[in-house]
Amino acid sequence: MAGNKSEREVVILMTDMVRYSWKTSAMSPEEIRKFLIDYHTTIHTLVDREENGPLEIDPSSGDGSVIIFDKRSGEDRAAICTRALQVAVRVAQAVSDGHLQPTRMGLLLGDITEASLGSRVLKFGASFAVANRLEELCGYFGTDLLMDREVARYQKGFNKYLLTIAKVSLTSILHPMNLFTLCKPGIQNYPSEVEEDQLLRFVAMKNEAMEFFTGNLLLGIKPDFPRVREMLIEVQNFFLKLTGRADIGTERILEYIRETPLPAPDFDRRGMKLMEKSRDSLGERIFHLSKQLLRAMNPDFYHALVVDTEWEKYFRLQWCRKGETIIEIDSVPDGVYYLDSGVAETVNGKGEVLSMMETGTIFGELAYFGREQKRTATVRAKTDMVVRKISTEDFKKMPVIVEIFKRIAIARKEEIKERERSVN
Q: What are the CB-based long-range contacts (under 8 Å, 24+) for 111-114?
């Protein structure tokens, strides 16, 4: 290998057709050839223009393309990032207009190098892998275009449309990635008939919420999941009213908070940890085995908990501070709780601590299956906690869930009796 060239900074636009395998699964080789030639010809027509250069278009095997934007003489980062983003917008517009098959794009400012191998010039650099991951993450966040922070920072002309998506870490990429997209009428499934000022209001609301999700060290803002959740629910409701559909990117953050209600210690540095799926892991096999065992033991429970997961949406997140009272003794029950994280203590009427409850405990069910239908103890947060609460009204809609809580209550009564016997 000879003819090595020095490292240079470029912008990489990685493109990939959506659902290519499905679209071509029933085609003959000749039909696939014509289909792909038409697709790549359209991309070339959109991209390979004098005002966009200098650039290189390298169709990969199949439906993907790697488009490399080089700097013009004297050009700075702002100019090259703007030029590349303008091309990406043109591609997105062609998709929206029906002139191009749905296509996802990853846009990255990074370094590459080259080397000659015979008559071929090979390009190297981790930037290609990162741009590829950006393109792949489009599907997860429900967008056609994702760009890294550098492109978003340096580009000119699209600032008001910039929408913060997330800060993520992947097992295959060493450093976290800050993801952005464009929210502009007429592209990326944003309806052209929506008034721009209303869409820009959505952008402002979402960006403000995301600052409290990712945190901002310069402004002294720390991740605040309870606040973010309330803000994003408002954002989602606004977007739903505006467009008639939910914003997938917003829903992904809400899902993350539901599953991880407290930021990890390194969250401000690493962001959301999205693990690429490892096939046939031991944990996955045990999970599937557990489902089958539950199915064999109680088909009704299996159907209610695994097949029909309607119950899950009724468990609403609550964040509790250390020392906060969750349940007051002798009060009328208003719901059942699941302790998601932290430690709680149960206290009797004399203020004596009866027991400690840790992550994974269900509590508050006893009052529903006693004669007086009142709380039998006070529950306080021993530490900062996160709980999931299902209201009386909601859980009584589901007979199987009522039966599960009843069994938990019976078991807890036996535990209390056993504890009292051991004390006496």
A: 111/7, 111/8, 111/9, 111/10, 112/7, 112/8, 112/10, 112/12, 112/68, 113/4, 113/5, 113/6, 113/7, 113/8, 114/4, 114/5
**Residue 1 — pLDDT band, cuts 50, 70, 90?**
very low
What is the residue extent of each domain of the chain? Answer: 8-274, 281-307, 310-423
pTM equals 0.79
| 3-class state of residue 154 by DSSP | helix
8 Å CB contact between 150 and 49: no
Residue 191's pLDDT is 83
> Locate tokens 């709680």: which residue?
344
For residue 344, list its beta bridge partners: 357, 381
Give me the chain's average pLDDT, please: 87
Please check whether residue 412 is in contact with residue 371, taking contact to mean a CB–CB distance below 8 angstroms. Answer: no
CB 356 within 8 A of CB 344: yes
Distance CA 154, CA 83 (A): 11
List all residues 6 or more positions away from 136 whose beta carbon is below 8 Å from its beta carbon: 16, 104, 106
Pick the CATH number of 8-274 from 3.40.50.2300, 1.25.40.20, 3.30.70.1230, 3.90.930.12: 3.30.70.1230
Tell me the pLDDT band of 279, cut-offs 50, 70 and 90: very low
Determine the pLDDT at residue 118. Answer: 74
CA distance 419 to 331: 24
Residues 178-216 as b/e (b if ≥16 CB within 10 A, e otherwise) read bbbbbbbbebbbbeeeeeeeebeebbebbeebbbbbbbe
pLDDT grade, residue 402 (50/70/90)? Answer: confident
The CATH code that applies to domain 310-423 is 2.60.120.10
**Structure tokens belonging to residue 183:** 């929210």
Task: State how far the Cα of 412 lies from the Cα of 409, in Å rounded to an integer.
Answer: 5
Instruction: Please write the tens of the pLDDT for every residue from 125-180.
Output: 889 989 999 999 999 999 999 999 999 999 998 999 999 999 998 877 778 889 99
142: alpha, beta or left, given left = phi > 0 and alpha = psi -120 to 50? Answer: left
Angle, CA of 138, 12 and 99, to the nearest 5°:
60
- With a CB cutoff of 8 Å and minimum separation 6, the contacts of 387 are 317, 318, 320, 326, 337, 338, 339, 340
Residue 217 has pLDDT above 80, yes or no: no
- Whether the pLDDT of residue 304 is over 70: the answer is no
